[in-house]
Amino acid sequence: MPALNLTLNLSQHDDLYDQLVRMHEGLSDAESLRLWSRLALILINHIGDRQVTEEAIAAARPL
C-alpha cells in the first residue's frame, strides 16, 4: 500500500500554484469553496487509496 508523499514531487510547482489561484477569479467565497471541494474529490478519486487520503487530510489540517 503506498504511503503519503510529502516531499516536493512536482515540476513547475509555482506555475501550478498560480493556476490554482487563478481558477478562483470572479467566484464568490461559496463558489470558491465548492470548487475546492470538487477538485479535492476528483483528486481523491484519482488517488483511489483511502489510507493515503486520510493521511493527507490529517497532514493538511492545522494543529
TrEMBL record:
<dbReference type="InterPro" id="IPR021233">
    <property type="entry name" value="DUF2783"/>
</dbReference>
<dbReference type="Pfam" id="PF10932">
    <property type="entry name" value="DUF2783"/>
</dbReference>
<protein>
    <submittedName>
        <fullName>DUF2783 domain-containing protein</fullName>
    </submittedName>
</protein>
